[in-house]
Write a structure and sequence with these properties.
The protein has seven helices and 33 strands. With about 525 residues, it is α+β, with helices and mostly antiparallel strands. The chain has three domains: about 90 residues, Immunoglobulin-like; about 80 residues, Sandwich (Immunoglobulin-like), CATH 2.60.40; about 290 residues, 4-Layer Sandwich (Deoxyribonuclease I, Chain A), CATH 3.60.10.
Length: about 525
């Protein structure tokens, strides 16, 4: 093959005494000596190391890792944990401390003194430990799994028809540290085997030992539950975010339409105690029920303002009377009210929870539905989180004491005023729930929809999208979760005005054993 070289290169080669075949060989060698990287592939992990394969051409390779993406700049690499130089393209970074914070990575290839840098990749996670103490029990006839260990960013529950796991029938992907799960889709009388794998930013642990159980619930009901903070009408006109809250008479129609779009069976409503339309008897919750129309009704969870000794809790339960029957607990009548005292905030404001027993008219499945609204102070994030945790512990203790008699599956729904973010260093309500093996419906749902947006929108025209879920629905053992959804009406990425509330409704389809 004949090569035509640029004149300036020929002059340089001649000066160096390179001609003919030597010129071609030396030029090819110089080109081959330049290091290159086409990609870096994460291949495996242990509890303290990450292994990668570098695709490229070089004499040696090194991989750098960092838990903050922008720390992998070329000028900062010397400060990052890294492997030794390896002549093999398989490179391992060792000595890392286990955490659930993800790692990002970047490789360097070197030949002689020349270096090439890869793109930045990630995130990946260290391998979590294997979950232990797995149990498969029956709660209200439904198979309920629990376990310990394997701290990570979630779990995978694998289900098979036999203990040898000759074939995996289904895998359920759980998000977060919940260690209780009730499969929502089992067949009555069928025998199943289960094993658990912990997951840390995509890296799986080894599978746990196997636990087996039979589904003994003869029937199930799928109940559409909702929680919605409708914002107190007394706050109308106050600025929040990029808009002022519109008057309730302008908001309620949109709120009702949003609710009806999901056809919920039961709804936990917060901030519904304000009197509206100049009335001294019509509460905001009453007004919402009127806007929803038949067949929606308001459960008796506080003494109404038309009766003596009326007091406001602000927490209400609305239900579809066609699909649900509101039951009177044993020893009570329809005149009794159903609420629990959760105590005062540091500012002296009282907080309550409302509850109601329901029977699904189609299947006769029964469950206890609890609606709550936890304290919001925001003057001391750590103290506020601790206060919300105490309120949640009180809520759980009172509901469990009450439930000793009926022994029903329980669904909790409300505004936690808490999530893991800068203003909430400790998510106290969820810590308390998990300690009692009560799972966030979002974490254990078989499917999730519209997860991008915060449930608190703060009346911003463009809804915040950092995935902060202040509003939640929780499933106690025995309650499966088929789906989780967040409702909001947008046009070109922005709310259609007026915005119904500074919160968006959260919907979960829960599976109740019969």
């Amino acid at each position: 093959m004949h090569h035509t070289w640029p004149r300036r290169l020929l002059t340089a080669f001649a000066a160096a005494g390179l001609t003919g075949g030597c010129l071609v060989a030396q030029a090819t060698s110089a080109i081959a000596a330049s290091p290159s990287i086409s990609r870096v592939t994460f291949t495996s992990a242990t509890h303290s190391s990450l292994t990668f394969t570098v695709s490229g051409h070089a004499s040696k390779y090194r991989v750098y890792v960092a838990q903050v993406h922008h720390q992998l700049t070329a000028s900062n690499l010397h400060n990052d944990p890294h492997s030794g130089w390896s002549t093999s393209p398989t490179v391992t970074v060792t000595g890392l401390s286990y955490s659930t914070t993800p790692w990002f990575y970047r490789a360097v290839a070197q030949t002689g003194t020349a270096r090439a840098y890869s793109a930045e990749y990630g995130p990946v996670g260290l391998q979590p430990t294997t979950p232990t103490a797995i149990r498969a029990d029956n709660q209200h006839g439904a198979v309920t799994l629990s376990w310990t260990g394997g701290a990570g960013t979630g779990y995978i529950v694998q289900r098979a028809a036999d203990p040898s796991f000759s074939s995996v029938l289904k895998s359920y992907a759980l998000i977060g540290p919940d260690q209780q799960f009730t499969p929502p889709d089992l067949t009555f009388g069928a025998a199943y085997s289960y094993r658990i794998l912990a997951v840390n930013n995509g890296t799986r642990s080894n599978p746990s030992v196997v636990a087996s159980a039979n589904e003994s619930a003869a029937s199930t009901s799928t109940i559409t539950t909702m929680t919605y903070n409708i914002r107190e009408a007394s706050l109308d006109g106050q600025p929040d975010g990029s808009n002022k809250g519109a008057p309730w008479d302008q908001r309620k129609g949109r709120a009702a339409a949003l609710i009806r779009s999901a056809s919920p069976d039961v709804i936990a409503v917060q901030e519904g105690a304000s009197f509206v339309d100049g009335s001294s008897t019509e509460r905001q919750a009453d007004s919402l029920v009127s806007a929803l129309g038949s067949p929606y009704k308001l459960a008796r969870t506080e003494i109404p303002p038309t009766e003596p000794h009326y007091f406001r809790t602000g927490d209400y339960i609305i239900y579809n009377s066609t699909t649900m029957h509101a039951d009177d607990p044993a020893g009570t009548s329809s005149a009794d009210v159903r609420y629990w005292d959760l105590g005062q905030s540091s500012l002296g404001k009282q907080h309550w929870a409302a509850y109601q027993e329901f029977t699904d008219r189609a299947s006769n499945s029964r469950f206890l539905f609890v609606a709550f609204h936890l304290v919001q102070v925001n003057n001391n994030p750590s103290a506020d989180d601790a206060a919300r945790q105490r309120q949640t512990e009180s809520l759980l203790a009172q509901s469990e004491t009450f439930n000793t008699g009926p022994d029903l599956p329980i669904v909790y729904a409300g505004d936690t005023n808490s999530a893991v973010e800068s203003s909430h260093p400790n998510d106290g309500p969820r810590v308390a729930m998990r300690a009692r093996l009560v799972s966030d419906a979002f974490d254990v749902a078989a499917s999730r929809h519209h997860t991008k947006f915060n449930t608190g929108n703060q009346y911003f025209s463009k809804p915040p999208a950092s995935r902060v879920y202040l509003d939640a629905i929780f499933a106690a053992p025995g309650v499966g979760v088929a789906s989780w959804d967040e409702l909001l009406k947008l046009s070109h990425g922005k709310f259609v005005l007026p915005i119904p509330s500074d919160h968006n409704p959260v919907v979960a389809k829960v599976v109740i054993p019969g």
